[in-house]
Amino acid sequence: MKYVRKAILYLVLGLIALIMLLPFYMMFVMSSLTTNEIYSFPPHIWFGSSLVKNFHTMMGQIDIVKAFINSCIISISYTFLCLLFCSMGGYAFATYDFPGKNKLFATLLGTMMIPFTAGIIPWFMMMSKFGWINSYQALIIPNCANAFGIFWMRQYCQNNVPISLREAAKIDGCSEWTIFFRVISPILIPAYSALGIMQFVNTWNDFMQPLLILRKPSMQTLPLALKSMVSDRGNDYGAIMLASTCAVLPLLAAFLCASKFFMSGLTSGAVKE
C-alpha cells in the first residue's frame, strides 16, 4: 500500500510538471512553424522546417541583439543593487537594536500593501523631474531597496546567521563592513540566489515601466521589442514565437544554474522557526 501511494504521488507530480512544461514546449515548436501551420488543426506537436525563415523575419522586424543587451544591463544592474541594499537592510533589522526599529519595520511591510499601479503616476512624475526619461537609471535605482527584499533577507538572517559569529568577528578586530562582506555575505548565498532570481525575472519581464520611460527604439528592452512585432495589419506568429523563445531561454538558464541555492533559500529564508 505504501508503494502504491508513492507511485500515485509521483504520477500526480509528473502530470503537474508536464502541464507546466507544455506551454514552453509548444512555444519552442511554434517558433519553427509558419503562421498557417500554427493555426492548423490538429495542432503540430513536433518541430517544423521554418526556423531559419522565422529567424530572418524576426531580425528584419526588431534588433533583438540590442534589445537583449538592454534587458541584460537593466536586469543585472538592478538585481545586483537590490541584493546589496536589501541584504544590508535585512541584516540591520535582524542584528541591531535601535529606537523605532519595530515601527520602522512595520511601516516598511505596510508599503507592500500599496498596489503597484497606485505608484505609477507619482513615480513617472519624479523621474520626469529628475530628467531620467530615456535613461536606464529610472528603471534601476528607485526600487532597488524594496520592502519584500529587505523582509526576505531579514528572515533569512534571523534563522541562519548566529549572533555568536558576529561577536567572534568583532573580538578578532573586524570592522562592521568586514563582518558583513567577509563573514555574513557567504552565509547569505542561498538567500541571494532565491531573491536574485525573483528580482531578475520580474525586471526582465517588466513591460509597463520601460514603456513609460524608454522612448528611443535603440533603448527598448525585450518586452517592448516583442510588442513592436504585433500590429493590426497581420502578424508573423512564427517569428513572434521565436522572439519569445529568445526572451525566455535566459530565464530558464538562470533558474537551472541557481536552482539548488534557490530551493535552499526558499525553505530556509522564508520561514521563521
From TrEMBL:
A Pfam entry, by short name: BPD_transp_1
Subcellular location(s) of the protein: Cell membrane
Source superkingdom: Bacteria
Membrane topology: Multi-pass membrane protein
Signal peptide start and end residues: none
Domain ABC transmembrane type-1, chain residue ranges per copy: 68-258
CDD domains for the chain: TM_PBP2
Keywords noted in UniProt: Cell membrane, Membrane, Transmembrane, Transmembrane helix, Transport
TM spans (from-to): 7-26, 67-92, 104-125, 179-201, 237-258
Main subcellular location: membrane
Keyword Cell membrane among record annotations: yes
Keyword Transmembrane (UniProt): yes
UniProt record similarity statement: Belongs to the binding-protein-dependent transport system permease family.
Protein's name according to its UniProt entry: Carbohydrate ABC transporter permease
Source organism (scientific name): Hungatella hominis
Taxonomic placement: Bacteria, Bacillati, Bacillota, Clostridia, Lachnospirales
